[in-house]
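User: Here's a structure from my thesis project, written as structure tokens. My advisor, Dr. K., wants to see whether a designed sequence matches the one we expressed. Can you design one independently, without my sequence as a hint?
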């Protein structure tokens, strides 16, 4: 799983030690540090979703597009992911959250709604 999270960092030219450090940190942030030796097929759908989130945050992007980041997660894991995205926002990162969840939307500073193809504030 660590290699899965680290792979995009390879393409960015990040040295091996730094890739490992970032990957382990990201997996810990999404609550998967106890599953490091597992293969993707050994993980639940929610755990696989958290690996994808770890892969995204390991790159430390300035912009995070999060499309239903909690869609396959239980309420506890979903709250942890939302807190993680909120902490990224507080560090100056831009987070665009696409969700149907009113409770997830409440984390946002600004909420825009799309209905019948029209954008509402």
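Assistant: Designed independently from the structure alone:
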């Amino acid at each position: 799983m660590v290699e899965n999270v680290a792979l995009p960092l390879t393409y960015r030219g990040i040295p091996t030690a730094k890739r490992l450090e970032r990957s382990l940190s990201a997996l810990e942030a999404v609550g998967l540090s106890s599953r490091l030796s597992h293969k993707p097929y050994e993980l639940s759908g929610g755990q696989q979703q958290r690996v994808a989130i770890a892969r995204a945050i390991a790159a430390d992007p300035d912009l995070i597009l999060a499309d239903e980041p909690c869609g396959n997660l239980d309420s506890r894991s979903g709250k942890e992911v939302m807190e993680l995205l909120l902490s990224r926002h507080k560090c100056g990162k831009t987070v665009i959250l696409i969700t149907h969840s009113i409770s997830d939307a409440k984390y946002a500073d600004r909420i825009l709604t799309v209905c019948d193809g029209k954008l509402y504030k």
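When you compare it with your expressed construct, this may help: The chain has one domain: 2-120.
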